[in-house]
Amino acid sequence: MEYDEEKFRRIVIETLRIPEAHYKPDLKLGDVQEWDSIAHLDLVYAIEQEFSLRLSTDEIVALTGLAELRARVKQTA
Amino acid sequence: MARRLILLGDKTLSGIERALNDLLSRHRMPWTVSDAGFDSWLREILEPRSLTNQETDSALGFLLSPRVLESPASIASQIDSLLDTLKHRTPSRTVLFSNMFPDPAGVLPLTRHEPLLSIAAEINAKLYAFSRAHAWFHVVDHAGLALREGTRHLSDARYEATAQMYFSPAGGRTVANLWMRVIRALETPAAKVLVVDLDNTLWRGILGEDGPEGIEMSAGPKGWAYRNLQQALLQLKANGLLLAVSSKNNAEEVRSVLAEHPDCLLRPEAFCAIEVGWGAKSASIRRMSEQLRLGLDAFVFLDDSPFEREEVATALPQVTVLDFPEDPLNLVVTLATTFAFDALRITEEDRDRANSYVAETQRDALREKTPSAEDFYRSLSLQLKLFLARPAHTERLHQLILKTNQFNLTTQRLSADEYHELLEQQDTLVIGMRVADTFGDSGITGLAIVTGVGTDTWTVDNFLLSCRVIGRTVENAFVAWLVERAKAAAADLVRFRFKSSTRNQVAREFLERSGLTWNAAEQVWQSSTEPALGSLASHFVTIEDRDVAR
What we know:
The structure holds 2 protein chains of 2 kinds. In chain A, 57% of the residues lie in helices and 0% in strands. Chain A has 4 helices and no strands. Chain A has helices spanning 5-16, 37-51, 57-62, 66-76. Chain B is of the alpha/beta class. In chain B, the strands form 3 sheets. In chain B, strands 12, 13, 14, 15, 16, 17, 18, 19 and 20 form a 9-stranded mixed β-sheet that branches. Chain B has a 6-stranded parallel β-sheet with strand order 10-9-6-7-8-11, sandwiched between helices. A 5-stranded parallel β-sheet of chain B has the order 2-1-3-4-5, sandwiched between helices. The relative contact order of chain B is 0.08.
């Protein structure tokens, strides 16, 4: 599936429930209070569904920012 | 009652807490849910001074995963003391408790489940017995959910590994949806009456056109969906729901199908009201509501026609109008997914209620001219489209001649050859009709054969409409239009032949209140073209006659 940055951005905003203005392409876990452990899993789940990929447990735990997540999505796309 | 629910579980529940709060606010339910934290459920027994014990006005929700069945200190040994603690606490609080299902993952797939299934069954029996004895205690049926959805949907090992969540984000939403329905049912009584349509709802086909032999509700592929629906309705009835019929049909025919059709599972005595007629369905539901002394908000309506659904929804906003599935095989799913029938417990009185009503068939339910009915017509933008019959229309128009019974002025079944001859005749107009409204176009659903065109007297040899479009005032609109047309062509008189049959009372009733006059000598209904025909005309229908205008 082709990578779609706008789709990626929308999923992040919706699952982390952050105001649009708080979105940054290189947002990191801890940058915004909304990105807690549950939101983290919701984000992983939503990205997996939308971009048809599956992260391993190690990847889920190691993931700390959008840059890594985007790179991982692109690698599959 | 408190509008707060504290979730207690053996695993992390914050995902479900969030999903459930989302659902509650989406459905405008003034509840908040909070999660008492990881592995909090046994605190209720072990710590009498725990936070949840102090908030005595909150409801408690025990939301357990299958892992409790597997742990060494199995729930089997804990459940009695937990229930006992709950029982002796004062004041009693609303308690929701999930029942048990084993997670089938693991080694030894052929043998491993037997002990877990036994433990689960034992605990579930205790939970249900307890709920029967205590009105404040309700079982949330996780086991049923797991059977329907499967643990592959509900759980994902990665989330359990990373966050101690048994239910995955997707599974958690499914679980949250079930809990939302349970919370809703705590405060909202279940609907009491389900009003169903007949044609293409309770059976496949149109009784008035296809006849009792042509409709399908057998256990074969054609009738399967409808038979399933009938079985589901019987099940709902056995649990206290009243069933009723509202159908635009011939009452005699309906009666004989319900009483005698070999495939029909729902007999007349299954219904507390059978309203068969040509009036507005909202009016028939209103009458049922008065007869049964039940508020309109206790009614649910199921009908395949978007027209009827909209009519009822507009006139009676308190009634729950169900969506009709594209594939009728999903009818039972439709009934299962609506919240309208949700009840936490079913009493003996509920079960008996359904048997205490006796069906009373009502006929000739005339459309009540309430302001809301007129508004409804007007909102439909009804259009009657008239066209001259051409060879391309022959198949459908001839089929109408053969099949239409109720609104058929003469029931004269012309052969294909006879029909063809009509098309050739100079003084004869064969007019086809389509009816369109905001829901779409009905297709070819009407026909009139007008002879004597060009002479002083126009005679309608036949006029017929499919029962799908009767009762929307297009019949009035056509009569008024034809009289105007005749007048414009300098004719003096328009006559409608009528021949009574066992099934065309609808047509007779229409003629009687149409503004036409009965001419006994000629056996026709007639109108001179002289006076204005205000009473004939419909105020709701616009006529598209470009094709027919000369």
